[in-house]
Every structure is written in C-alpha cells, then in structure tokens.
Specification:
Length: 420
C-alpha cells in the first residue's frame, strides 16, 4: 500500500499534486512519500515486536541520506555493502551498533573504516575475506565482530539476476562447509564470531523460501551450539517482494507469523535487511513526454527519463506500471515507452497498453523507489535526476538535480594536451 493516489483525475503524492512537483523541480524527478516509507518500516518493526530485533535497511535499495535518516530516527539500522554506504549511513545518523556489512569484495580500506567506526558486524562471504579481516583487525589491535554468510541452497523462485542463495551463486559459504568455516573463524585471534547471516535473493513473493532457509540455518545453529559456538545475532537478510503488477507478496506480518514460532525459546537478536519492500512502492519517477513517434511496426512514446535514470526495465526486463499524471478521457493505444539514450535497450515499457498521451504531458513510473536512483548513472552525459520527499502538504528537495558542471567535476585535461 502507498500514498500515490488519484484525486479526481489528478495523481497526488500524499497531499501534493504530482504535476505541481514536476513543474517546480523539473523532470525526470524521483518523488518519495514519507508516510509510505514510515508505514513500511513500521510494518516490520510492529510485526516482529515480540522478539528482540533490529531492522537494518538495505542501503543499496536507496541510499539517499534523508531516507536513511528517516529510518535511523525510528530505531532502524543499515545493511551496507561498501565504504561509501557506511559513510552515508553514519552521516545520516545511523548508529554504528546497528550497521551490518555484507558483500563479497570488501577492501582493506573498507574493512579498516568499518573497524574504526565499530559497526555491529561483518557478514563474511569467504575464507580469504575472513583471514583478511583478521589481519587488518590484528594490525589495528582490535577484534572484528563477524557473522558468516551461509548459502543455504534455497531457490527463492525469483529472477535469476536477483537470486543469490543457490549453490551456483558467488554469495556466501556453502552450508555443508559452514561448520568447518566456523571452526576456522573461532581459531582466528582477531575475530569474534557473534552471528550467522543469510540472504537468498530479492523480489521473493512467497513465504516458503524464507521458512525453508531459516529451518536450515537453525539446524546449523544447533550444531554450532553443540560445538560451543554461541550465535548471538541471527541475520535473515532481506528479499521480500512488492507488487509491481499483480504479484501478491506476503507482508511482514505473514513473515513474522511463519518465522517467529521457529525462534521460540531461542535467545538471539534477529536482524532483518529489507530494502525493496520498504522503499519500492514509496517512490515514483516522474517523466515528461517529449515526442510521439510512429515507427514501422509500433508506436513510441519518447520520454525524458532513460535507462540511466531507471535501469530495471533494461537490466531485468522488469515491469513498472506507468500512469498519466493527469488522466484524460482518451482512447488507449499500444506503445513502447522509451528514453532518450542511444541504446535499443533503453525502454521503460514495451508493447504496453497506454492512454494516448500528448507532447508535454507527465507520466509517473510507479514502484520506482527501490533500485531506481541508486542504480542510476551518467551514461550519455546525462545529469542525474532530482529527488524530492513529500510529507503531507510539504515537499522538500532531498537531492538536487545534477548540473553539467557536476558531470565534469572530477575530470582533468593533462598538460600535454595543452589548450583548446
Ligand atoms: C540486496 C540485499 C538486501 C536487500 O534486498 P531486498 O530484496 O531489497 O530486500 C539485503 N541483504 C543483502 C545482503 C543484500 O545484498
């Protein structure tokens, strides 16, 4: 559920007409609803209320500092995958004691940064990484808190690009080898083993994969406990799906209903790392119709947002609903909605039934809050779009639109190329 709704024929973001935002801030424009963000965050917090837990928002889904601040203010933490995300999370006011750090390729610099700022734990993905963290922590005369990321070999039944918990994936440690890894970890002087981690994929629309994966991990926890390894933090990752089209994914309450009984009597802190399910439907991408073009075989609606602004359709063939910002009484047509990028793969929708729009009219690409802006790039030297947060009648720019100057800010012409 979200708060982008039509009032009469006009699409609103909470209490503000989307057209007004487009006029004021320009397009393409990301618009987030504060009320939706908070509602989704609280849905998790309330659902797991009966068990000690930390909700570590997966920053890679949307790393805008204002969004991280909103969750931090409400007791949330962060799941990070890079030094840059750690920096942003700390600046946003996320407590380091609520930061968990995943990713298969952590560098020494990043490990040092995380140790210095005393994050809750590293979610370690390989033996090499474990030894590297031990070495870096040793040099810093400290102990690194660690969870091992287990690959439970569970099929999340989602798109292959966003599935992570099968044997063939680069993520985590094969569950059969886990005991051996824990043994290695407990022998390392500068490692303190405190947790276990799993994350099986994204946009998962059933409860079963979560239940099955948790059961496997719990068996492992019991075996570890028998060997004297005490797991304090159980991190079950993120991955809950949202409704882009007609999916009916479980809500956090359904997750809690199925998962909490499995944890009864176990003294651990549960960590969750939701990303998409919190921000996905809390954001839209507003774009302007530039041209209509009748191709050889089909019609194109050419808009000012491209694959550099929202990559998901091009990358995974993902479906995003596209709605007119002002509904008109016009017939429908079938069209491709495409951007200005010089790539045939640059589309937001293919052969989509769309209302006949006219030049200059605004469209809203729905469910664009997760993996939207955070995956954007400057390809074709396009400045990145602005981002706005709406709260009731208020609206505030949370990221300025990039300028041409921003594009060149880090580039240099060597002396040997001389003057123009
Ligand atoms: C991407 C990721 C998440 C968030 O996944 P969502 O599907 O957005 O909930 C959580 N944990 C880890 C380790 C991730 O890589």
């Amino acid at each position: 559920m979200h708060f982008f709704k039509y009032k009469n024929s006009e699409l609103f973001a909470e209490d503000v007409p989307v057209s007004k935002l487009a006029e004021k801030y320009g397009t393409p424009l990301y618009v987030y609803s504060h009320k939706t963000l908070l509602r989704h965050f609280k849905a998790y917090d309330d659902a797991f209320n009966g068990y000690p837990h930390i909700i570590c928002f997966a920053a890679k889904a949307n790393s805008n500092i204002a969004i991280l601040r909103l969750f931090a203010k409400n007791g949330g933490g962060a799941d990070i995958v890079s030094g840059g995300e750690l920096f942003t999370a700390l600046k946003a006011g996320v407590s380091p004691k609520k930061i968990v750090y995943a990713g298969v390729g952590k560098t020494d610099d990043e490990i040092r940064f995380a140790l210095r700022t005393k994050i809750l734990m590293f979610n370690v993905e390989s033996e090499d990484e474990l030894k590297e963290i031990n070495k870096v922590a040793g040099k810093m005369k400290t102990k690194a808190p660690v969870a091992l990321r287990i690959n439970p070999d569970i099929d999340p039944e989602t798109h292959p690009y966003i599935s992570t918990g099968l044997k063939k994936h680069k993520f985590g440690i094969p569950i059969e080898d886990a005991i051996e890894y824990y043994r290695t970890a407990s022998r390392l002087k500068n490692i303190s083993v405190i947790g276990i981690h799993k994350h099986i994929g994204s946009q998962i629309t059933k409860v079963t994969p979560f239940v099955d994966a948790l059961k496997r991990v719990l068996v492992l926890i019991d075996r570890l406990s028998a060997q004297g390894v005490n797991i304090k933090y159980l991190d079950i990752g993120g991955g809950l799906g949202i409704s882009y089209k007609d999916e009916e994914p479980p809500v956090p309450r359904d997750m809690a209903k199925n998962l909490l009984p499995l944890l009864r009597g176990r003294k651990m802190t549960l960590i969750m790392e939701p990303g998409r399910s919190i921000v996905g439907n809390a954001g839209i991408l507003v774009t302007k119709t530039l041209y209509l073009k009748q191709g050889f075989e089909k019609e194109f609606i050419i808009v000012d947002a491209g694959m550099n602004d929202l990559m998901r359709p091009s990358l995974y063939g993902a479906y995003h609903q596209i709605l007119p910002v002002k509904k008109q009484k016009r017939a429908d047509t079938f069209a491709d909605v495409v951007g200005p990028i010089c790539e045939s793969g640059d589309f937001l929708a293919k052969e989509r039934e769309m209302p006949m729009v006219k030049q200059g009219e605004y469209l809203a690409v729905m469910s664009a809050g997760a993996y939207g802006f955070s995956m954007s790039s400057n390809y074709n030297s396009r400045p990145k779009p602005a981002e706005v947060m709406v709260k009731g009648k208020e609206h505030c720019l949370i990221r300025e639109r990039e300028t041409y100057k921003d594009l060149l800010k880090a580039e240099r012409i060597p002396d040997f190329l001389g003057n123009a």
